[in-house]
UniProtKB/TrEMBL annotation:
This is Uncharacterized protein LOC115066234. Pfam families: DDE_Tnp_IS1595. The gene is LOC115066234. InterPro entries: IS1016-like_transposase, Tnp_ISXO2-like. The lineage of its organism: Eukaryota, Metazoa, Ecdysozoa, Arthropoda, Hexapoda. Residues 148-294 form the ISXO2-like transposase domain. PANTHER family: DDE_TNP_IS1595 DOMAIN-CONTAINING PROTEIN, SI:DKEY-17M8.2.
Length: 317
C-alpha cells in the first residue's frame, strides 16, 4: 500500500477513498509521510521513548526513573492532528477539499467518508481556516526566501486595485480593500500586498515597494501622487496617464502598466464574493492565491502541495 501511495502524482476522490478511507489507512499514510512522528526523545534522559499504538493515535512513554510515573504523551502532540476530534478520513477529505477549492455544496455531495454523519458548516469553515493558516506561514516564509524582483535595467510594473463591491445608492463608491500589485516584465512572479489600514499613501506604498523591488529598477506606474517620490529611493520612474483622453493606456514613450492590470482580472476571479469585504481573512486569502499560483505554475498536485505545507509548518520528524 505504501509503495503504491508514494507513486501517486495526482490525487482524485477515487484514490482518496481507496488509500485514505479508513482510520488504519490514514494512520499508516500519516506515519509514512511524516505527518505523525515515529520516535520521540525523552526531554530529561535524552533517549528514545517507547511507542505504543494501542491508542487510536498512539502514545509515547518512557520507563526510567521519575518518567515512569509521568503522563503519556500523545503521538499527535505538536502535530497537525493535535486535539483533532474528527475522524482521520474526514480530516484528509477536508484537506483535499481545501486543496481543490470545493464549495460547501461540493463537499456535501462528494463526501465518501460517512453516509450518515454530515459535516457541519462550522467544521468546514474551521478546517479551511486551519489549512489557510498553514499556507500563509509557508508562503510568507518562502516569499522572503525568493528575495526581490527587478534590478538595474529591468522593468517592474506597479499598480493598486480595490477589491470590493459597489454599494447600492452610493454611486461609484466601492467599499473593500486596496491591494498593491507588482510584476517584473518577462516574469510570472506576481507580488501582492494588502495596504495596511486600507491606505494607499506614499508612507504606505513606498515601504511595500522597497520590500519587493530592487533599487535601480525601472518602475512603471500610473500618475497616482504617492509614486512621485520613487526616484528619491533609487528607482527610475516612468508613468502612464490613464486620464489622457487620446491614449489612456500607453504613454507616448511606450510606457504602460497593462500587464499588472491584466493580472487584476485573474486575481479577482479567484475570490468568492463573501471574501471581498471580510477584513478578518482578506490578507490571508491574497497569500493563498499566490500559493495556488505557484503550485499551478510548477504543475504540482494541490493535495500533495498542501501535505508539503503541513510538513513544513509542523516540522514533524
Amino acid at each position: 500500500m505504501c509503495r503504491d501511495v508514494s507513486l501517486i502524482q495526482q490525487w482524485n476522490l477515487v484514490k482518496m477513498a481507496k488509500y485514505l478511507g479508513t482510520h488504519e489507512l490514514c494512520m499508516l499514510f500519516a506515519e509514512t509521510h511524516g505527518l505523525l512522528p515515529k520516535t520521540r526523545v525523552c526531554a530529561i534522559h535524552k533517549t528514545q521513548m517507547a511507542l505504543y499504538k494501542r491508542h487510536p493515535v498512539g502514545y509515547f512513554k518512557f520507563s526510567r526513573g521519575n518518567c515512569r510515573t509521568k503522563s503519556l504523551i500523545s503521538r499527535a502532540a505538536g502535530t497537525w492532528f493535535e486535539g483533532v476530534k474528527l475522524s482521520f478520513p474526514h480530516v484528509f477529505y477536508l484537506m483535499y477539499c481545501f486543496a481543490h477549492r470545493f464549495t460547501r455544496e461540493n463537499i456535501y455531495r462528494e463526501d465518501y467518508t460517512s453516509v450518515l454523519k454530515k459535516l457541519s458548516s462550522a467544521t468546514i469553515s474551521d478546517w479551511y481556516s486551519y489549512c489557510r493558516e498553514a499556507v500563509v506561514i509557508f508562503q510568507l516564509d518562502h516569499q522572503e526566501f525568493k528575495g526581490k524582483i527587478g534590478g538595474p535595467g529591468k522593468v517592474v510594473q506597479i499598480d493598486e486595485s480595490k477589491f470590493g463591491k459597489r454599494k447600492y445608492n452610493k454611486g461609484r463608491r466601492v467599499e473593500g480593500h486596496w491591494v498593491l500589485g507588482m510584476i517584473e516584465d518577462g516574469s510570472e512572479d506576481l507580488r501582492l500586498e494588502v495596504c495596511p489600514d486600507n491606505i494607499r499613501s506614499a508612507e504606505v506604498l513606498i515601504p511595500l515597494i522597497r520590500k519587493h523591488v530592487h533599487e535601480g529598477t525601472i518602475v512603471r506606474t500610473d500618475f497616482w501622487r504617492a509614486y512621485e517620490c520613487l526616484p528619491n529611493y533609487g528607482y527610475f520612474h516612468e508613468k502612464v496617464n490613464h486620464s489622457d483622453p487620446d491614449n489612456p493606456f500607453i504613454a507616448e514613450d511606450g510606457t504602460h502598466t497593462q500587464r499588472i492590470e491584466s493580472h487584476w482580472r485573474v486575481v479577482k476571479r479567484f475570490f468568492y464574493k463573501d471574501n471581498y469585504n471580510n477584513p478578518a481573512n482578506f490578507a490571508d486569502v491574497i497569500v493563498e492565491f499566490l500559493w495556488r499560483q505557484e503550485i499551478k505554475k510548477e504543475k504540482k498536485d494541490p493535495f500533495i502541495s498542501l501535505l508539503d505545507v503541513i510538513k513544513y509548518v509542523y516540522n514533524t520528524k
